[in-house]
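Summary for the lay section of the report: proteins are chains of building blocks that fold into shapes. Here we show the chain for NAD-dependent epimerase/dehydratase family protein and then a coded description of the shape we predicted for it.
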Amino acid sequence: MSKILITGGAGFIGLHLAEKLLKSGNEIHLLDNFARAAKDPDLEAFLSQKNVTLIEADLLDPSFIDKLDTDYNIIYHFAAIIGVPHVLGRPYEVLTKNVELLSNIIEFAKKQKNLNRLVFASTSEIYAGTLKYFDLPIPTPEDTPLGLTDLAEPRTSYMLSKIYGEAMCHHSKLPFTIIRPHNVYGPRMGMSHVVPILLERAYKLEGDVPLKVYSPTHKRTFCYVDDAVDLLERVALTPECEGVALNLGSTDDEITMETLALAIIKTTGKGKGLTYMPETEGSVPRRCPDMTKAMELTGYQSKVSLEEGLARTFEWYKQNIFEGHGITAD
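The coded shape description reads as follows.
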């Protein structure tokens, strides 16, 4: 049994990962300040189990960090200021606070008596500058040179905080792994992402009304959260993953937003056909991770098809949000 700390542990990926790691026989500590996470029935059910502890606190408070345990074997760091409204409205805080959060957790990790791995959640956004100004290979491997978008642009703040964070990990002298998530989706992911947005839009349709889809020609891969947490568990247990950055995403082919929207019509049984809308401002035409390195190092392979993943996600949103308590993450 390993003792594992997950910062941002009450959030979307954090809680799914916690459930996976608990089933594997570990002791799980969730740390969250609930700025974005929801105290919903899913979290309450998880907290009722043995070997689970919730620490409600802010990692920006160094005095509190000093009171935490010093015998964690694995630390997953998901805590961050994220989301387009925050990035556009508070770019300075996004930049400075995300760096401060990681700095605090690195110093905390150095105090651990037997730390096997610090797993840092970076972002696929770090490839945005290369995509905009240079010839970005797609699927995109981890060793792609990173370029920056305009430093005066608010959106750059989040990407830059994660690039800086990756550099901090490399120079921390800790056993670390960096992961760069690409379009992870599933139950309990909030309402600000394309999958739940389209699910809700389709669910509300009456009769043979077409579903509106923006950026219909843009392409993405979509990774169901169960596959994502499978890889997250694997990287922490694989010695060869120490000291490297890995893409986290689906091993399936990329699809267009049009294809996604049609799949959602099929999943919900609502609507007929599509209404094609303009491109979403700031959205890149393609984003697709090269998963070769992660597959070779860990044996990872995504298992949940888009059809199955959308069905599971829709069922959760229908029961809990569209017809239920209505509580989900920011």
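Put simply, here is one thing we learned. The two ends are 33 Å apart (CA to CA).
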